[in-house]
Amino acid sequence: MGTSGEELQEIIYVDEKRLDTYFEQISNPVKFDKIPEWDGEITAGGLIPKLEVQAGRKQKNHPRPYTLVEKVKIFYDYMEKNNLITDNRPVDPFEDDKSSFFRFETMYAYKGSVPAPKHRNDLGSLIIWVSPQPNKQSGQAVSEDSDEAGTLFLLEDFRVPDKDPIAFSSYSTLLLFMEDEVYPAIEYSALASLNERDKKVSALLATDPVLALSRLGAVFGRERLIKTIYRFIATCNEEDNDFSVTIIGYPIVIWG
Asked: Could you give the CA distance from residue 52 to residue 32 in angstroms, rounded to a whole number?
């Protein structure tokens, strides 16, 4: 997954609260490094005292907290070993196997900042990652399932409790955002102002979500290649985009 000690990592985002909650269930909170102790003695006599040093006879366990990269690697390794995580994007909205709720994916994505409503200028922006369909991504290899895999939306700082994902066979991305399992995460952003009955907005959100969100005032950076571990919470066959599978989820960690 690209988190080896030999490879430098740029951690872009981490849900520390969730990662720590998961981590404390699978690992001790403290790592012990073995450090060699140095033995030495001074021999008197002659004009110059001699210092004899011997190393490696003993090792001392030195406790320290795990680093962020170590936590991510241990978490991923545990999930993979126990078949609790799947690579790549869902292509079936009705995957009911709990082992597939967590995903690891390398993708191209846009990071966007969706402003709060004007009457709530005391609130910060909603940070959302939008990853287009794999077969529409520049530089992304096309798989046999690429036509079914749809757009992925990842919401940072998702504070709704973990639940089993919801799924719809023929639905819209717009309506998916308005479901009770998702709406609390967006209700204080401009996303909540979307009109559920506006078919033009619904179609644009399905086919060009970056443009649709930009018209709400969202600001997006350039497309970039990222890796992420995420959990999806809602899926549907998007009727305005050839029934490809739209996914809404939240990231545990994102790195470049």
From this structure: 29
Structure tokens at 114: 């969706």
Q: pLDDT tens, 134-184?
A: 766 655 544 555 558 899 999 999 988 888 899 998 899 999 999 999 999
CA distances from 114 to 37, 129, 166 (A): 54, 10, 24
Whole-number CA gyration radius for the chain:
24
What's the mean pLDDT when you consider all of the chain?
A: 84
- Beta-carbon contacts of 3 under 8 Å, excluding residues fewer than 6 positions away, are 9, 69, 72, 73, 76, 255
Report yes or no on 79 lying in a domain.
yes
Structural domain includes residue 75? yes
Q: What predicted TM-score, i.e. pTM, was given to this entire model?
A: 0.83
User: By the 8 A CB rule, do 223 and 138 touch?
Assistant: yes
Cβ pair 171, 237 in contact under 8 A: yes
- Residues with Cβ within 8 Å of residue 76, at least 6 apart in sequence: 1, 3, 85, 104, 229
Q: Is residue 10 part of a domain?
A: no
Per the domain annotation, does 123 fall within a domain?
A: yes
Distance CA 168, CA 245 (A): 10
Strand pairing partners for 102? 85, 231
> What are phi and psi for residue 105, nearest 5 degrees?
-150, 140
Whether residue 80 sits in one domain with residue 174: yes
Claim to verify: residue 57 and residue 105 sit in the same structural domain: no
- Domain match, 187 and 144 both: yes
Q: Are residues 174 and 88 in the same domain?
A: yes
Please tell me the distance from the alpha carbon of residue 239 to that of residue 173, in angstroms, as a whole number. 9
Q: Are 164 and 181 in contact (CB under 8 A)?
A: no
Distance, in Å, from the CA atom of 176 to the CA atom of 206, rounded to the nearest integer, reads: 11
